[in-house]
Design a protein that fits this description.
alpha/beta, Aldehyde Dehydrogenase, Chain A, domain 1, single chain, 6-stranded mixed beta sheet, binds nicotinamide-adenine-dinucleotide, Aldehyde Dehydrogenase, Chain A, domain 2
Length: about 500
């Protein structure tokens, strides 16, 4: 398979100025996939300069024309869907069936949504003082730096670049060092459909070097970041130099609550998807399973049986339901949490080990892991980011709301119940950017996505995202107002 391995700067693919590269591995067996150019500050400077030069032209291009390019890109993504799915599966370990349906499908859908959105972002007129016309337009912020993690690299190109470009900003994106391949493929498609030079620049590099430099860069007017809460704090500090705008999509510790009146079969299925899809490497994973004590045993019987039956295997096999984690370092970190759980008196009910299959021995694999723990334990408080779910029980609504809200995060959470009053009441009390009732992990390009508290601030998707990438400009025109002199001379 051909991989694009060069930096994308000013519409061209180029090696890093010092020839440095990052080795990209296949998480299935840790074999070499590609050597990708590694951006350093000099390369980032070039990209920011290109984005700065491109901004006046792009920001004044008719919104419908900006939208048309995004729509063309969505079509190109679908036309190259199989290639993109293969790249994503090889690079991240996403099962190919998910890569085809979810990663490629949602990426195209999100670019298409923002393509359509480009000319729908309207200003307004304020009924202000007599004799004045006061109108408000939405202006693009300028050059936008975007830093994304390794868990959904393809999808995040669209979440981040879709609204930024639709709104008229120019972009310098740094993909994660572990998984840069699908974003470089998107760069190829952007060049193919005719994005003007410099409007988009995509530069893989290490977080502490290229990422930090981009976040500090005085020529960058906004930084949009998705990643861990720890790095989020560094981004805020780095942004202080020129007071750039910051948008943070950080970690989560999703509470997934099952009440005693729930449709248990649906809850089992949805809860397994909530934690095991993408090997649990999702900020919105339902990583804390909170079970009403009356149905806990019945639920667990079914849930464990389903978890044990999940087909863990080579991501390229169409039957695979769970692939490897994205890196060995991360797999070991997740395994480390089994030790943490044991030390705190938790019980590993299933999993906590690599699969027995010798064909998977060299990869970053882990079997679905279910751990009984107390809500205050570290495994119920810290983001594990793997196929690792903690299980605790509760007695009533008040107690479960307290448990659910009892972490530093506030990203996504869900509940399963047949009681309409309870569904809305609990949803109202959850401190969370997203709540799912009788479903989990739903997302749509039109629906605001993001968190509160330790999960960050700002929203992706919909009109909220367009507002994140624009600022309101209030223009006052004296139509026929008579202004009495302020200085009576
Ligand atoms: P990470 O914070 O280590 O890295 C994310 C990105 O930041 C990478 O591109 C990395 O190179 C870069 N980076 C690292 N240090 C940096 C620095 N000092 N300055 C600038 N950039 C730097 O996170 P990760 O381990 O790659 O990703 C997993 C995390 O992302 C999890 O916490 C997960 O919850 C979070 N996440 C959040 C969302 C959301 O929408 N809220 C979505 C997906 C993932």
């Amino acid at each position: 398979m051909h991989f694009q391995t060069k930096l994308f700067i000013n519409g061209e693919f180029a090696d890093a100025h010092d020839g440095a590269t990052i080795e990209v591995l296949n998480p299935h067996d840790n074999s070499h996939l590609a050597a990708v150019a590694e951006a350093k500050p000099t390369d980032i400077d070039q990209a920011v300069e290109a984005a700065t030069k491109a901004f006046p032209g792009w920001s004044t291009t008719a919104a419908a024309d900006r939208g048309r390019l995004l729509l063309k890109l969505a079509d190109a993504i679908e036309a190259h869907g199989e290639d993109l799915a293969q790249v994503e599966a090889l690079d991240t370990g996403h099962p190919i069936r998910d890569a085809r349906l979810l990663d490629v499908g949602r990426t195209a859908a999100t670019f298409r949504y923002f393509g359509g959105m480009a000319d729908k972002l309207e200003g307004f007129i304020v009924p202000a003082d007599s004799g004045f016309l006061n109108y408000v337009t939405r202006e693009p912020v300028g050059v936008v730096g975007q830093i994304v993690p390794w868990n959904f690299p393809l999808m995040f190109t669209s979440w981040k670049m879709g609204p930024a470009l639709a709104a008229g900003n120019t972009v310098v994106m740094k993909p994660a060092e572990l998984t840069p391949l699908s974003s470089l493929k998107i760069a190829e498609l952007m060049a193919e459909v005719g994005f003007p030079k410099g409007v988009v620049n995509i530069l893989p590099g290490y977080g502490a070097v290229a990422g930090q430099y981009l976040a500090e860069h005085p020529g960058v007017h906004k930084i949009a970041f998705t990643g861990s809460t720890v790095t989020g704090r560094k981004i805020v500090q780095a942004s202080a130099g020129n007071l750039k705008r910051v948008q943070l999509e950080l970690g989560g510790k999703g509470a997934n609550i099952v009440f005693d009146d729930a449709d248990i079969k649906a809850a089992i299925n949805g809860s397994a998807f909530a934690i095991f899809h993408n090997q649990g490497q999702a900020c919105i994973a339902g990583s804390r399973l909170l079970l009403h004590e009356k149905i806990a045993n019945q639920f667990l019987d079914g849930f464990l049986a389903l978890a044990k039956s999940i087909r863990v295997g080579n991501p390229l096999e169409p039957a695979t339901e769970m692939g490897p984690l994205t890196s060995m370092g991360h797999r070991d970190r997740v395994l480390g949490y089994c030790e943490v759980a044991r030390k705190e008196g938790g019980e590993i009910i299933i999993g906590g080990k690599a699969p027995d299959d010798p064909a998977l021995a060299k990869g970053c694999y882990l079997t679905p892991t279910v751990v009984c723990a107390k809500p205050q334990d570290r495994v119920c408080q810290e983001e594990v980011f793997g196929p690792f779910v903690s299980v605790s029980t509760f007695k009533d609504e008040d107690e479960v709301i307290k448990i659910a809200n009892g972490t530093a995060y506030g990203l996504g959470g869900g509940l399963w119940t047949r009681d309409l009053r309870r569904a809305h009441a609990v949803a109202r009390h959850l401190i969370s950017g997203m709540v799912w009732i009788n479903c989990y992990k739903r997302a749509h390009p039109g629906s605001p996505f993001g968190g509160v508290r330790g999960s960050g601030y700002g929203r992706e998707m919909g009109f909220d995202a367009m507002h994140e990438y624009t600022y309101p400009k209030s223009v006052w025109l004296n139509v026929d107002a008579s202004i009495p002199p302020f200085y009576k001379r």
